[in-house]
Design goal:
Strand content: 35-45%
Helix content: 10-25%
Number of strands: 25
Largest sheet: 6 strands, mixed
Shape: globular
Number of helices: 11
Structural class: alpha+beta
Radius of gyration: 25 Å
Length: 415
Amino acid sequence: MAESFYIGMDLCPDSTQISFYNDIKREPETVNQLNNKETYMMPNILFFSRKTGDWFVGSEASEARFKEEGVILDSVYDGALSDEHIEVGEKSYSAKQLFLMMLRMHIDTFLYRYEGATVKKLVVTVPTFSKKLFKVLKGLHKELGISEDCVVITSHMESALYYVFNQPSDLYVNSVALFDYGTEGLKYFRIDRERGNGTNVIRVSGKDYSSQFNMAMFMGDDILMDEAFAKIVNNEMKQTYISSVFLAGLGFSEKWMNYSRNILCQGRRVFAGQNIYTKGACYKAVGGEYEEFYKTSLVETSENVPFDIGISSGDEKDEFLTITEGGTQWYNIKGKINVILDDTDTITILYRDRRTGEITRDAVKLFGIPKRPNKTSKFSVEVEFDSRKNGAVIIRDVGFGKLFPTTNKIYRKEF
């Protein structure tokens, strides 16, 4: 029987990493390149051979470009955000087509190792959210030939949470620190846990040190970089008790830490790895027991929506009828319900704070709807987000069969 895999993909501008869930080891395993087992990084480049008409991806593309005549495409990621068209082998491709083809080929280089293997679920994690990138990635399921709900897009921040909270519990008894040192500079995240009042809260806070700590600043001076990082570490470690520290990003792949390592390791465990995010994405793909912390805790990040949205039932019970639940990333929240009004032309929108339970009300009067008998006015109510706290509730008159056709009126209430 052909295997079907849960896969986590860490997609960055220059490279991609892939992890799959190993059922035997019961943990994610990161894929090495066949021709370079010392790295997980697959370069985001494509090569087209004019001789054979074949496409190559990643490290195989890097090798092929020096062995035979063809076309090398090394800005595939950036091209995905444009409307550019490219002629390759007497055929025209949109930059978006090439980008999605590259991602499919990255995945295929792993799947080909197992006869007939398929993707059960894929979680793509990216450094920062981009509407353009998100829109392009929404078409990845078609490229892979799987259903839309089998592909999820998430962030490095959430992937880190999935990774951390699937490690031994002694690593997050207290706060957890994550330093990410990439080509854009150093970023710091701290994961804190609060207990009390019947609510467990996981809060992620962060600082962007990229303007004062980046690769261009030090010009290869490892001692200066070590001293500068030590000051940042010393300052952050004094703020609260840290159980463990995770180091991610290419900047930590070189051996320049000496003085700063000693400060990091004082009373806490330190882990360095380039595959933290891809493994975290893989844990998210599996779900189940691996997302238990999301079920038992209120997770607060700069991306997660801090409130639920619903409508009042409009009767004496005044029930909260949920449209969307918060507690997850604003760009991954969807929600829509249909309501039938009974002797009213008003819908009351409810916003419920996930931490306090406090409810805020916002009445929307539906002007211009013709007079209809009770329970024959049907509306759809859905929510769209622009950020974690801003968006709009969209109300549409959908009519009530042939007897009371829709007026096509749409009401928008921003929040």
